[in-house]
Amino acid sequence: MNTSSIISTSPVLPQCGSEQEQPSNTIVPPARRQRKPRAENSTRHHWSKEDNMKLMKLYYQSVPSRPGYRKRLHSLWNDAGLFSSSEQRLADQARSIMKNNLLSDIELLEIQGTLTSGSVTASNTTRSSQVPG
Q1: What SS3 string covers the chain?
Q2: CA atoms within 13 A on the CB side of 42
Q3: What is the pLDDT of residue 24?
Q4: What is d(CA 119, CA 64) in angstroms, rounded to the nearest whole number?
Q5: CA pair distance 39, 102, nearest whole angstrom
Q6: For residue 48, what are the CA distances in angstroms to 19, 97, 133?
Q7: Minimal CA–CA distance to 102: which of 46, 63, 58?
Q8: Contacts made by residues 102-110, CB under 8 angstroms, sequence distance 24+
Q9: The predicted structure's pLDDT at residue 114
Q10: Tens-digit pLDDT profile for residues 20-72
């Protein structure tokens, strides 16, 4: 068998740093990857602490323990007239707030407390009125 014929017919791959197109099966390091440009009308939104607090209030209102909370959360978000965001993005941000402690446990408890304080005070007044005096 003639080895020179095998070598001459094999494809020549470009060396790293060359201007030639790389084959599709090679792995390109992250630093050399091309990013797809953003749509012209989209801008990246920076979530402020106020935005996070509003989101968590609506998150707790949407009753996350029940199925369909993302749809309810998205509806509450849109009804509040806040910036446009998808169901998935809102759920991801709420999860990120809790996981990364973007709001303290005390702040989250206060947000939950404002939602349930009406029901707690109502139940406390009925108990106090039932206590013999």
Answers
A1: CCHHHHHHHCCCCCCCCCCCCCCCCCCCCHHHCCCCCCCCCCCCCCCCHHHHHHHHHHHHHCCCCCCCHHHHHHHHHHHCCCCCCCHHHHHHHHHHHHHCCCCCHHHHHHHHHHHHHHHHHHHHHHHHHHCCC
A2: 6
A3: 65
A4: 19
A5: 28
A6: 43, 11, 50
A7: 46
A8: 102/47, 102/49, 102/52, 103/49, 103/52, 103/53, 103/56, 107/53, 108/56
A9: 79
A10: 555 667 787 777 777 777 666 667 789 999 999 999 999 999 999 999 999 99
- Rounded to whole angstroms, the Cα distance separating 47 from 41 reads 18
**pTM attached to this predicted model:** 0.57
Which candidate, 105, 51, 94, 47, places its Cα nearest to that of 69? 94
Distance from first CA to last CA of the chain, Å, rounded?
110
Average pLDDT over residues 78-84: 93
